[in-house]
Amino acid sequence: MRRRASLVLLAFAVFCAALAPLLRWYAYPRLAKIPAGQYQAMVLEAKDATLLDYAGGMQPKKVAKVTIVQTLKGNVEASREIEADAGKDVVVWDTLSYIIGPDGAMVSRIPERYIFDAHTQDPVHATGEMVDGDPVTRQGIEFKWPFFTEPRDYLYFDAQTRTASPVHYVGPRTYRGMDVYYFEQTVPWTKVPMPKKMPIEGIDPATIEQTTGTTLWYTVTARFWVDPVTGAPVNAEQDIQQEMRGGIAASAPDGRLTAFAGHVTMREDYAKYTRDLVAANRTKILALHTYAPAGLALGALALLAAALWLEARGRRAPGAPVTDP
Predict the structure, then answer these.
(1) Cα–Cα distances in Å, from 314 out to 5, 12, 82, 259?
(2) 222: part of which helix (H) or strand (E)?
(3) How far apart are CA 209 and CA 192, in angstroms?
(4) Most exposed among 34, 149, 164, 191, judged by the fewest C-beta atoms under 10 Å?
C-alpha cells in the first residue's frame, strides 16, 4: 500500500516539476498581455492655471481650474485586422483628451490612435496610427511601460510634439504604500501643431498660422510613478506651458501669449481607483510569473520527499525490529 502511495506521490511530483517551468517560460509570455477590448476613463485637473481667453480679447487669465477628461477604448475590430498582417497580438487604443475650461465649455479635443504589441508594448506601425488626425510613426512607449519595467531610461512618445525623447529613471519611490519606479521627462520648447478643434466655432487653426503667422509652442516636465511589475503608471503629473508666438501675439510682451500654463494632476478619486486597479493586476501578473511556478516547484520537492520517505518505510521488512547499529 505504501509502495502504491509513494508512486502516486512521485507522479504528482514529476507533474508539478514539469508544470512549473512550462507555466513560467511558455504560458506567461503568451498569457501576460493587454486585453484588446480595454476601456478606461481618467480625469485630470490643473488648479489655479493660466488659460487664454479666446472670447475676451485673446488675453491670458488666471482660472480656478482646467479639467482634462481622457478616455481610452480598445478597438477590437481594428486589432484583429492589424494582427492578420502583423502575425502577433496587437492592441489598438482610440483615446481622446477633452479639455474643459472653468465655465464647462470645451477648450480643445485631441483624439489619438495608438497601436502596440500586446505583450511588449512596443509600437506597431499600421494605417490609422495618428494624433489629432495627423499620421505619425511612434517610437518608444506611450501611456504604459513594459511588464517588469527595468530601472533604466526609456524612449517616451509625446503626443504634442509627435516625437519621442528619453524619460529618465530617477529611482525607487513609495506611492500610497506601493513600491514603484519614478521617471521624469522634460520636453524643451518646441513648435507644435495647433489643435484642430478650437474653442470658437469656425476657426481653422491652419488658416490662423498661414494668414497671421501665429505659431504654437509647448514645453512640459512630466513625472511618472510606475509599478515595475505591470508597467502601469499609478500616478502622473505634468507641468505644461503653451504659448502663441508672432502674429496675433506680436503686440504682447516679447511677442508671446500664454495659451495654457498649469500643473496637471489626477483627480483624487481617480488616483485612488488607478492605484487599486494596478495593485489588483499586479497580483495576477505575479501569480502567473512568480507565485505559481515557485509554488509548483516547492510542491514538487515536498511530494518527492514524501514519496521517498514512504518508499523507505515500505522497504523495511514487516515486523522487523528497528535497532541502532
Answers:
(1) 10, 19, 61, 85
(2) strand 215-226
(3) 11
(4) 191
Q: What is the pTM of this model?
A: 0.88
> What cell numbers appear for 232 in the block?
502601469
CB hemisphere CA count around 150 (13 angstroms)? 5
Angle at CA 163, nearest 5°, toward 162 and 165? 145
Q: Encode burial over 172-209: b for 16+ CB neighbours within 10 A, e otherwise.
A: eeebeebebbbbebebeebebbbbebbbeeeeebeebb
Distance CA 86, CA 78 (A): 12
3-class state of residue 119 by DSSP: coil
The span from the CA of 161 to the CA of 240, in Å, is 13
Give CA angle at 221 (156, 145), nearest 5°: 30
292-325 pLDDT, tens digit each: 889 989 998 988 888 888 777 776 645 555 454 4
d(CA 154, CA 7): 52
Cα–Cα–Cα angle for 173, 176, 180, nearest 5°? 30
- 106-120, pLDDT tens digit by residue? 999 999 999 999 999
